[in-house]
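> tool_call: predict_assembly(chains=two)
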Amino acid sequence: MMDEIDRQIVLATQEGLPLMSHPYAQIGQRIGISEAEVITRMTRMQDGGIIRRIGAVPNHYALGYRFNGMTVWNVPDEKASALGRVVGALGFVSHCYLRPRHLPDWPYNLFAMVHGRDRETALRHAGAIAELLGSDCLGHEVLFSSRLLKKTGLRIAG
Amino acid sequence: MDEIDRNIINSLQDGFPLTPTPFADAAKALGIEEDDLIRRLQALRADNVLTRFGPLYNAEAMGGGLTLAAMAVPEDRFEKVAEIVNTFPEVAHNYAREHALNMWFVVATERPEEVAEVLEAISAGTGLEVYDMPKQEEFSLSLRFEA
């Protein structure tokens, strides 16, 4: 679990690390602890899964991955977990989740994100998922993103 | 963006040292100077090739709440509604998508019960129905992009 000092570290780093020679010392200075304690605590948060990873978060549009397709699938509930594992294991699927349906407007319960530098690539990935699901696919759609409206990542309030 | 930038983006998606001089250590592995790495990261941030450089926190592991939500926004109100939604600091990202449900955003909160409050506030502020689609199971999360 996190304590108040961990929380201060999250607040000080959630928008990014200072791009300077001793970033952890700088964070420590800001919240009144030593560099060593910042490193120890961030290591612990990383080991415990609170920090998924540290590093570069690219804007995939800027890298040319302009076509990010959220493929959504209506699959039988009793098979959803097993099918999700199979789809999630595909190399071109970046995220894969089960989510609740909202009937009648939204019949889809399996979500898989695919990406491509062109629309055809993203659609080909969706086609491969359709083939894999076979008769368990009771319907699907591909929702392409037309615009990134906001991407700040997770923020906790100060 | 040159070959060195691409190298930086590709290798620094996999992790970054938790050492007193992480940029110097990472630079060494990349075969460049610390100053050069810092300067290039500053430029990549300024050009928005990187949306961020630092730790990626897991809302649920922090004990917080997280959901994906969607709305069907009338085209003529789209910009205004996007502005309202984006004002919420709990909205971590927001995408326009080609569908009747044309706005999709992720809400991350410090306490799990705040998710419902934020969605209600967004619904009240926009006058639109918000479809809440929290994940029930997660199968893969590889957030890597080859530059």
